[in-house]
Amino acid sequence: MTDQNSNAEAYQVMAEILVTVRRIVHRGLEKVSGKTWYLDGCPSGVFERLVERKENEAAVDRFDDEYQELISFASLDELAEIVDYNEELAKLLAAIEPEGTTMAQRLRQLEALRLKMAATLPFDQDDVDNLLDYHSDLRKALARGKKKNGEVTPTPAPAPPAEEPEDDESPPEPVGLDVPEFTTQAAQIDDIPSDTFGTVVSRTDVDSAQEEGPANGGDSAVDAEKAMASDDDGEVLRVLRGEIMTVAEGVYQGTTIKSFPVWDTLRSSGWYDIKKVDLALAPVELFYSIAGEAGEKQRSGADARDLKSFLEDWGFSKLLLSLREMFMRHNL
Fold first, then answer.
1. What is the pLDDT of residues 159-189, one digit of tens each?
2. How many Å separate Cα 119 from the centre of its chain?
3. Which candidate, 263, 271, 206, 255, places its Cα nearest to that of 239?
4. Which of 151, 235, 240, 257 is 20 to 30 A from residue 303's alpha carbon, by CA?
């Protein structure tokens, strides 16, 4: 096997593993932490890196405004960090762990190969063998998970990486997870970005939100009521986003905001309680709880240092990124 052929086959297998493991982890995260898994089911450092990578991709208009899940930007090493961080997820994935090691450990081993591939370094036969072994191990682990779940679907033999699959049979699923079939769709192998992330609430975002409507005035609450009466959830969320952006700016600038008319309207009408699960709105309630307490601290004379410490303790920057991701999911 030439180095060129070796790398071509290795790339295809790596793409299959990367896409499949991302989907397995993502579905596991949603099972244990809901659609807003990035709020409490993911380490802060990983979350910020995924957001930064997604922002960089969106900046070149790569996806034509189509919503992309954050997990689609995770490296194998970051997937390992997520599994290590989330105890419930690790328990769920234990059914498909490779024999003799944990999934997180194996993913980190594969990440070293992925980075070697990203650097266009040739694979030697040991590299190829390690990759094919994991490909086989993962399929066997999926089969074990299927059997533990009370089914007896036989383990499919792994197809040679450069050839088309011999049939359309999907690999078995692990216990408790709806696992996607292996796919030959090419996976993007990204460079690892820096650990920094820019301003969470940009001036442009705030100006845009304020142009859409005065988030702190009665008009916005009326707009929310009209949208609810029309059963227009998208418009309700647009009005809510305007208030959240203005409130967030006030919290950071130390401007005391005494009331949240849109939020109060959504709560008193019952809209939030009805919609919070289907629309995955969990970060909203936490945001207003923190913003309300921050306002009380401001009114009681807390200085900028105390307020900053309070926001850091609550992970306010991460919460704002979670809200941004939530609104992006709803095309806002």
1. 444 444 344 444 334 434 444 443 333 333 2
2. 26
3. 263
4. 240
109-137 burial code (b ≥16 CB/10 A, e <16): bbbebbbebeeeeebeeebbebbbebbeb
Compute the distance between CA of residue 171 and CA of residue 48 in angstroms, rounded to an integer.
Answer: 33
Q: Report the C-alpha gap between 249 and 229 in whole angstroms.
A: 29
Contacts of 135 (CB under 8 A, 6+ apart): 13, 16, 17, 158, 161
Total-model pTM? 0.57
Q: Which ranges of 149-281 does DSSP label H, i.e. alpha helix?
A: 203-212, 218-229, 233-253, 261-268, 271-275
- Tell me the per-residue pLDDT of 197-247, one tens digit each, with 9 for 90 and over: 233 444 444 444 443 333 444 588 899 999 999 999 999 999 999 999 999
**Chain centroid offset of residue 74 CA:** 9
The number of angstroms, rounded, from the C-alpha of 6 to the middle of its chain's C-alpha atoms is: 33
Place of tokens 């070149």: 60
CA dist., res. 312 & res. 332, Å (int): 26
**Per-residue pLDDT at 9 exceeds 60:** yes
- Domain spans of the chain? 3-148, 203-329
Sort 31 into a burial class: Cβ within 10 Å, 0-12 / 13-18 / 19+. Answer: middle
Residue type, 80: A
| Torsion angle of C-alpha atoms 309, 288, 89, 330, degrees rounded to 10 | -130
Q: Which residues contact 20 (CB under 8 A, 6 or more apart)?
A: 138, 179, 180, 181, 182, 183
User: How far is 274 from 160, CA to CA, in rounded Å?
Assistant: 50
What's the length of the chain?
Answer: 332
